[in-house]
Amino acid sequence: MTQAAPGSAGDRFALYDLLVTYGALIDAMELDAWLALFAASCTYHIVPRENYERGLPAGLVYCDSRAMVEDRIRALREANKYNIHNDRHLIGLPRVIGEERDAKLVEAPFAVYQTDQEGETRLFATGLYRDRIVAEGNGLKFRDKLVLLDTFAVPSLLATPL
Amino acid sequence: MTQAAPGSAGDRFALYDLLVTYGALIDAMELDAWLALFAASCTYHIVPRENYERGLPAGLVYCDSRAMVEDRIRALREANKYNIHNDRHLIGLPRVIGEERDAKLVEAPFAVYQTDQEGETRLFATGLYRDRIVAEGNGLKFRDKLVLLDTFAVPSLLATPL
Amino acid sequence: MTQAAPGSAGDRFALYDLLVTYGALIDAMELDAWLALFAASCTYHIVPRENYERGLPAGLVYCDSRAMVEDRIRALREANKYNIHNDRHLIGLPRVIGEERDAKLVEAPFAVYQTDQEGETRLFATGLYRDRIVAEGNGLKFRDKLVLLDTFAVPSLLATPL
């Protein structure tokens, strides 16, 4: 990492901030700022955990390039004109589970709640982020974001990112 | 901050501890200790997120001074004689979103669960804390606590703080 | 603690990692690795919070030695052959609430969600960990794990650890 010695406290806090900012920007529907958390070259996949563990390819969202993530965001903006709810992400403490040449492999559990127009809040989904995180430009970025979704009884059209 | 150089690890951990202690003291109904987390001059507001975003003044709780927070606590103690449930706060990692002359502007997402006398636990509310935090006395304190509530289908009498 | 000066950033991160790893290993059903987070001499108790506060001895799980924890794990593996669900732990930031001669007393709130075979996710339980944590071997370990359970309307046979 460029900003601090490997394993330094600053490095760890930068990682914590990246994860919590990721959730906060979705909840605020600041999707351009959210997109800026991804590396220039990146992937973004949402896969039911069960499929992932069985090696099945079927994913709910399958973006193999930054251009595909950008397309996805455009579609989500459109969908959200008609699908009025608010998200709230609660993301557990991330932990570093591996180190690669230039990336850290990081896991964090999450729960997403949705509030409808009547002000009722329900659990929407839980799962596990399994991310490859790199130092790029002025900070840490997601190179590969894998959302392992516990909950597969979700609408096939996800109206916001997870 | 008085206790450590700005941005030091100790400073950040003090912030983390302040937030989690805030939730833990409500859950334990140690409301005097909870009150001691606020600065001598402080505010405490609970506002539905939707109202806040539209600039509507209507808040569920509106305490513009420490005396008003103290009054509120007295009322809550009274209410809790008859409203038997336990709270559990889960608060996400706080992040510093701005710096003022002598305060940090800090956000953290939260979920509150309530357990009734039959031992059943339900999600009560989710939302976002948006706080102004200052160094005062021997530690960090809340000068302004703003609870942006996703869930507005909650009883108008909140029997415990959020 | 052996790895870093008391109160150092590394010490705190080691504590954070211990807690989140605890939850992650249960969720992944890696129960041998989970067991390795406990000290050679350890206890593991799950007690409804209400019973604990009233000083009632009745616990849901009562393991007074490492051998009892190991037995419990064997029973859980057996139970999980027939009880197909996935857990997801969300654990709040731990805070150190006391120091003993060679241990730290640590609390952290948690919520556990379960996903059934139809992919539906529900809140299973919330509560508070109150742990004695020691440095042993190459890291921090749980010497005493006390799970204060808010939710007592849970099946008496817990099919996974909390």
Describe the structure.
The structure is a homotrimer of 162-residue chains. The first copy, chain A, has 162 residues and is α+β, with helices and mostly antiparallel strands. Chain A contains 4 helices and 7 strands; from the N terminus they run ααβαβαβββββ. The first copy, chain A, has helices at residues 9-27, 31-35, 49-54, 66-80; strands at 38-48, 61-63, 86-91, 95-99, 104-115, 121-136, 139-149. In chain A, strand 5 (104-115) and strand 6 form a beta hairpin. The longest helix of chain A has 19 residues, at 9-27. Chains in contact: A-B, A-C, B-C.
SSE topology:
The structure is a homotrimer of 162-residue chains.
Chain A: H1 9-27, H2 31-35, E1 38-48, H3 49-54, E2 61-63, H4 66-80, E3 86-91, E4 95-99, E5 104-115, E6 121-136, E7 139-149
Parallel strand pairs in A: 1-7
Antiparallel strand pairs in A: 1-2, 3-5, 4-5, 5-6, 6-7
Range of helix content of chain A: 25-40%
SS content category of chain A: alpha+beta
Strand content of chain A: 35-45%
Span of the ends, CA to CA of chain A: 26 Å
Unreliable stretches of chain A, pLDDT < 50, 5 or more residues?
A: 1-6
Largest sheet, strands/sense/barrel of chain A: 7 strands, mixed
Mean of the pLDDT scores of chain A?
89
Q: If you compute it from the alpha carbons, what radius of gyration of chain A comes out, rounded to the nearest whole angstrom?
A: 16 Å
Oligomer: homotrimer
Counting DSSP H or I runs of 4 or more residues, the number of helices of chain A is 4
Which chain pair shows the most residues in contact? A-B, 26 and 25 residues
Give helix and strand order of chain A, one letter per element, not per position: HHEHEHEEEEE
What overall form of chain A do the CA principal axes indicate? globular
Counted beta strands of chain A = 7
